[in-house]
Design brief:
This is DUF4976 domain-containing protein. Pfam families: Sulfatase. InterPro entries: Alkaline_phosphatase_core_sf, Sulfatase_CS, Sulfatase_N. This protein is of the alpha/beta class. The chain is 29% helix and 17% strand. The relative contact order is 0.16.
């Protein structure tokens, strides 16, 4: 090209490049990273123990906002994931447990992003509709694990074709690499939404080989309530009988997974398995920075539910204690989220969909029961909700945990058990953060428990939750007390 022609075209070329950069800068990209069974305090900067490491989650907290009071509305994989995607409570979307089918008319927020010109992609564990891994609506590109998936040598349903991976392929690495590969190949003139859904850290824990035995022989701390149900001491604290009974079950510390693993090994393997999820977060953030996408991409990290490490003598989730229903939530978005900030505002998984839709400029459907907390992220609001609600429905496969409903405010938590002859629970979370002293029978708190119970059932009634879903009794019992009985 001669010099005269170049000078003639230079203004046009400059304008075109600037326009392209401006258009890209206006794109509000989203990467949502979901971990399985990651409890709210299992991050290095939370100092749960002296040795656990999550350097990339720590970095995400430094560069973004830590939402310290994030909760799920059901502490179970499928219901929680459905609530994230629909902005609805389990009794509304009806995916009430891990075997409930997805309704044919269910709408996920990525479908709305697609209509708003977003490119959307899913990678990892879907776990709704039981083991079905077929591509779901709302995603232009799909890579799904079958059921819980496998840590090593997993198979992926990639846009309808199942591919088996070998050679010691580790699932967190595979999903992350494929997500980044898709980002490299995407159309650069459209905003994107990536849903990176990890298998980790679901039991049985299998860390990547490079992390195996990283924490071998490290000391394992026990929570203050660990021994409460080991003797009749629990009666002095007014804890329900079912909690003591569960101690010697699949989800109890004295017979965990029917004796397949000891507590200390279980605890250490959890944190070793978490390391690969943490590395995934680092790879994603490094990619965004290296490709000039850091400023206009919201990165969200969340757990689908919490996890117990011996509190009240329990492991797993499902129940309404803090360690089960509370999750990590870290959000980075340099455009308006202050680096290194945090908030005490209470938010829930049902609030994710409306928040992301508002960010994308998409109208929030009235059918969504959550509400956007974008103002909390911007720092223009310090509160979001004055109460949150929780529900869990009894499962035939895990009968040791009853149907329960709960309401939590900044100070109190009320737990109501349905269909079980037992005490309900009331805790003053400011005086008793470990939920060790049930106040339900204390006359001094009678009016508070009455008010909370009324608000809880008002919520259920107003949101269409006054019914109990039933399942057929068509397989023998799995529990250790009545095994193989119908």
């Amino acid at each position: 090209m001669n010099k005269s022609l170049l000078l003639l075209l230079l203004p046009f070329l400059t304008t075109t490049v600037c326009a392209q950069k401006s258009a890209q800068a206006k794109q509000k990209n989203i990467i949502f990273i979901l971990a399985d069974d990651h409890r709210y305090d299992a991050m290095g900067f939370m100092k749960k123990n002296d040795w656990a490491e999550t350097p990339n989650l720590d970095r995400l907290a430094r560069e973004g906002k830590h939402l310290k009071n994030a909760f799920v509305s059901t502490a179970l994989c499928s219901p929680s994931r459905a609530s994230i995607l629909t902005g609805q409570y389990a009794h509304k979307h009806t995916v009430v447990d891990n075997t409930a089918p997805e309704p044919s008319d269910i709408e996920y927020f990525p479908q709305l992003l697609q209509k708003a010109n977003y490119q959307t992609a899913f990678f990892g564990k879907w776990h709704m509709g039981n083991d079905d891994d077929h591509p779901r609506k709302g995603f232009h590109h799909w890579e799904g694990l079958k059921g819980q998936g496998e840590y090593y040598n997993p198979s992926l349903n990639i846009d309808g074709q199942r591919i088996q991976f070998k050679d010691s392929t580790y699932v967190a690495d595979l999903l992350t690499d494929h997500a980044i590969d898709w980002l490299n190949k995407r159309s650069k003139d459209k905003p994107f939404f990536v849903y990176l859904s990890h298998k980790g850290v679901h039991a049985p824990f299998q860390p990547a080989k490079r992390h195996n035995d990283r924490y071998k022989n490290k000391p394992v701390p026990l929570p203050p309530s660990y021994a409460l149900t080991a003797t009749d001491e629990y009666k002095k604290h007014n804890l329900p009988e079912w909690v003591k009974e569960q101690r010697h079950s699949w989800h109890g510390v004295d017979y965990m997974y029917h004796g397949q693993i000891d507590f200390d090994t279980f605890y250490r393997k959890y944190f070793e398995t978490l390391l690969s999820v943490d590395e995934s977060v680092g790879k994603v953030m490094d990619y965004l920075k290296a490709n000039g996408l850091e400023e206009n991409t919201m990165v969200i990290y969340m757990g689908d539910n919490g996890f117990s490490f011996g509190e009240h003598g329990l492991i797993d989730k499902r129940h309404a204690y803090e360690e089960s229903m509370r999750v990590p939530l870290l959000i980075k978005y340099p455009a308006f989220v202050a680096a290194g900030s945090s908030t005490d505002a209470m938010v829930q998984n049902v609030d994710i969909a409306p928040t992301l839709l508002e960010l994308a400029g998409v109208p929030i459907p009235k059918v969504m029961q959550g509400k956007s907390f974008l103002d909390v992220l911007k720092g223009t609001a310090t509160q979001h909700k004055d109460k949150i609600f929780y529900e869990y429905y009894w499962e035939y496969a895990f009968p040791q945990t009853p149907t329960m409903f709960s309401i939590r405010t900044e100070q109190y938590k009320y737990i109501h058990y349905y269909g079980l002859w037992t005490q309900n629970e009331l805790y003053d979370l400011k005086k008793d953060p470990n939920e060790m002293n049930n106040l339900i029978a204390d006359p001094e708190y009678r009016e508070i428990s009455k008010q909370l119970s009324t608000q809880l059932f008002d919520w259920l009634e107003a949101t269409g939750g006054m019914q109990i879903p039933l399942k057929r009794n068509d397989v023998p019992k799995f529990d250790n007390k009545f095994s193989k009985q119908y």
